[in-house]
Specification:
heterodimer; A: mainly alpha; Four Helix Bundle (Hemerythrin (Met), subunit A); 6 helices; 77% helix; B: two-stranded antiparallel ribbon; globular
């Protein structure tokens, strides 16, 4: 409510806008990597292998986490701070679970003798590691941001009514979610 | 209002509204000069760090020009400063390649990207669009400190035992991917890539802010088509950076995996002397080139566009005429920004690129001549019959136009894939990009410094020293790079250590010595500029008018030394575009002047 008073011209908040441009920038980074993947795939000695099964489940987990962060934002706007804290905790845990599952996926590949790095590795597996790993780093960034606002919501004595931080993080979180869905579809059916 | 929301954290907002105009930040030395969030201070930090690198990078070119100009002479003092890198007063081949590589990296990224757009985007965007500060002052501060960290890492690479990276500023694998490939490929390359990664982060943080500020934080009345061309140019620069640097980053990530984790993205079938055959298979070094040049080509416009924008503004102000073809200027900037993404493979004509694909890139490359010619035409017609004031800033702006024409014309040669077979990797290329991108952008930067120095420091630079600086630099730039065209046409390749042992290139010994001598003189002239700059900060002639160039733009409506927030009261409202010079017989009408009833329409 209070933020509305400060933006009577209804222009988008500059920091929200900045986030959208940053998302454009991240899209370029992943577009570069996935197009490098396609270029590489069309050259010699490309190893075909099925994706780890656990990637299907991790996809489910990250989709659920998008729902929880959306509910967290709604709770914040309704000033239900207890519920808000619960929901961002759940989101963080789901994020961590997602990271663990991706890691388990890598272990699964290694167990199937598909080297991700090192002299025996094939670019197909290395690309999977680099692109997925980079995505994981971005999920980790989101978790850290959530941790920061969680600590703020639990310790700060000053009441903060601005929903800007949680709005920014939830936009980012949805983006990272959609990015993974894109990558998942790309690995399975496009690339 | 969004301006206020940015400078003050949201918590303060409720209490803030009553005393919106008078806020006293309690600034310490640290928050004012070191970890400053004021865009004007950050701009100065970028500028002075850029100057440091310009001196170092320029000095490197003097050192390797010594080798090229005087391959047989020995300079004992070189051993004193370079130690084992100049045994017996001769620069070693390893040191030569390290100098060339570091010169390129530093000048392209640290001086002409961070030093140029870092300085002027930070300084001019909030002042000319009428904003209190950037969209996120904190991110802006981070942008500088990431650049600073990148600088420290790059500087440290010069002092490691195996020397800095020496495989060329483009860092092509395998030299950049294999530590065993050359001494510089070891620790030097690790530091190079860390430094560049930090630099990419810095550029992105800066670029995001510039875009958000220009689009969201313009003052009342400042529509996009009332913006000065500086802001349009800086806007497209930022867009280019934000879309192309991440691609370079992707390329670097794959490179890091190849270097450190044994993957084979770029490596295949390699035999290293002393190590043997490598197990890497299936990689493609060309893939790196694609990723690199997808940034690399927009990068040259990232360097050039800010200079174009500032030159447009300075030419108009000092011709006392509106810029000719304002909308055409914006359109051509836009066209250049779009084409910048579609021409990267013209750097790769000789990599075995499909000739059909090559011809598409030839076409797109030559298309850039159209917006470039529009810009040149508009600059010349702005000067035409103007009431020209030859201030040092104006001299450099005119010099920019001259260099842009000279260097741009050779671009038409190089853009042809057939001619490129002969000219690729020769001194012709060196001459072309140094004139059109390097020296021209330096001229844009100098023009900007001379023009906005009074706003930065409240004093003038010394004009006489400025004129000497200009004439020595422009004459020197042509004397250095003009002869290189002939060397390149004769097939003289770039990056060679010693041409005197080649029958075909022996004839250029005298010419090389001439170029090297001029390079030293021009370098000395830059020291003159540095002296002028630092002396004038403290002792320069004081400003007697708040608007020394009788300019229309908003930055000259601020106080002599604007505080954080730029305007003490309300941000002024804008009523007209930035180029009402000589309109209805009035010399200049600032943007803040309301349109009068008797004014002719523009």
């Amino acid at each position: 409510m209070t933020t509305v008073q400060n933006t009577p011209d209804r222009r988008i908040h500059p920091q929200k806008f900045t986030l959208w441009v940053a998302i454009g920038s991240l899209i370029m980074m992943f577009a570069a990597l996935t197009s490098a993947y396609i270029v590489k795939k069309n050259q010699s000695s490309w190893l075909e292998f099925p994706l780890p099964r656990i990637f299907w489940y991790s996809t489910g987990v990250i989709i659920i986490s998008s729902i929880t962060i959306h509910l967290a934002l709604k709770a914040f706007k309704a000033r239900e701070m207890g519920r808000y804290r619960q929901l961002i905790t759940v989101t963080m845990l789901l994020g961590l679970l997602f990271l663990g599952m991706q890691y388990a996926g890598f272990m699964d590949l290694e167990a199937r003798n598909i080297a991700l790095t090192g002299p025996k590795s094939n670019s197909a597996a290395s690309f999977l590691l680099v692109i997925t790993g980079l995505h994981m780093a971005h999920v980790l960034g989101g978790i850290i941001a959530l941790l920061v606002i969680f600590v703020r919501a639990s310790t700060s004595r000053v009441k903060n009514y601005s929903s800007l931080p949680i709005e920014l993080i939830s936009t980012y979180w949805h983006f990272v979610d959609i990015l993974w869905i894109y990558l998942f579809i790309f690995y399975n059916w496009i690339g | 209002m969004s301006n206020e929301a940015v400078i003050h954290s949201p918590v303060e907002i409720g209490a803030h509204e009553e005393h919106g105009e008078h806020h006293h930040h309690h600034e310490t030395f640290i928050t004012k000069y070191v970890f400053s969030q004021d865009h004007k201070m950050i701009a100065k930090q970028f500028l002075i760090t850029g100057m440091f690198w310009a001196v170092l990078g320029g000095l490197m070119s003097v050192l390797f020009r010594l080798q090229l100009g005087y391959p047989d002479a020995s300079f004992p003092w070189l051993e004193t400063i370079l130690g084992k890198w100049a045994k017996g007063g001769h620069i070693t081949p390893e040191a030569y390649y390290a100098l060339v590589t570091t010169h390129g990296t530093v000048l392209v990224f640290f001086v002409l990207t961070a030093g140029l757009s870092g300085t002027f985007a930070n300084f001019l965007i909030p002042l000319q669009v009428g904003a209190r500060d950037m969209a996120s002052p904190f991110m802006n501060m981070l942008s500088y400190w990431f650049f600073f960290a990148a600088s420290v890492v790059m500087l440290s690479s010069i002092f490691v035992q195996t020397g800095p990276f020496s495989g060329g500023w483009t860092a092509y694998p395998p030299l950049s991917a294999l530590g065993d490939a050359s001494p510089g490929s070891q620790t030097g390359m690790d530091l190079w890539i860390v430094s560049m990664a930090l630099f990419v982060v810095s550029s992105l943080l800066g670029g995001l802010n510039y875009i958000a500020t220009i689009l969201n934080m313009r003052t009342k009345g400042m529509s996009m088509t009332r913006l000065p061309l500086t802001i349009w140019a800086l806007f497209f620069t930022a867009v280019l950076g934000v879309l192309s640097f991440p691609v370079l980053f992707s390329g670097f990530i794959l490179l890091i995996f190849d270097r450190n984790f044994g993957t084979s993205f770029y490596l295949s079938d390699i035999f290293v002397n002393g190590v043997g055959a490598l197990p890497n298979e299936g990689g493609s070094a060309i893939l790196y080139q694609h990723l690199f040049w997808f940034l690399g080509h927009p990068e040259v416009y990232i360097i050039l566009l800010p200079a174009m924008g500032m030159v447009s503004e300075i030419l108009s102000v000092n011709s006392r005429k509106p810029i000719f073809g304002y909308m055409a200027m914006i359109g051509s900037l836009f066209a250049i920004a779009v084409l910048a993404f579609l021409v990267w493979a013209h750097h790769m004509f000789v990599t075995g690129l499909n000739p059909l694909l090559g011809s598409v890139f030839v076409l797109l490359t030559l298309l850039i001549a159209v917006p470039s010619a529009i810009k040149v035409f508009n600059w010349l017609t702005t000067l035409w019959r103007g009431n020209i004031r030859f201030t040092p800033g104006m001299m450099f702006a005119i010099g920019f136009v001259s260099l842009f024409i000279s260097g741009g014309l050779t671009g038409i040669w190089l853009g042809n894939s057939a001619l490129d077979i002969h000219l690729h990797d020769t001194y012709f290329v060196i001459a072309h990009f140094h004139i059109v991108m390097g020296v021209a952008s330096m001229f844009g930067m100098f023009a900007g410094i001379y023009h906005w120095f009074p706003k930065m420091y409240g004093r003038y630079l010394n004009n006489t020293v400025g004129y000497i600086h200009f004439w020595v630099t422009i004459a020197g730039a042509y004397m250095i790079f003009w002869p290189m065209h002939y060397e390149g046409l004769a097939g003289m390749p770039r990056r060679y250590y010693d041409y005197s042992i080649w029958e075909s290139f022996k004839q250029f010994a005298e010419l090389n010595r001439f170029i090297s001598t001029v390079a030293m003189i021009v370098f000395a002239a830059q020291l003159l500029f540095l002296f002028n700059f630092f002396y004038s900060i403290f002792k320069g002639r004081k400003m007697t008018s708040l608007n020394p160039w009788q300019s229309n733009t908003l930055e000259w409506t601020t106080p002599l030394r604007p505080g954080h927030g730029n305007w003490p009261g309300e941000i002024p409202e804008v009523h007209r575009w930035a180029y009402d010079y000589g309109k209805d017989g009035v010399d200049f009408i600032p943007q803040t002047t309301p349109v009068g009833a008797d004014e002719s329409h523009h």
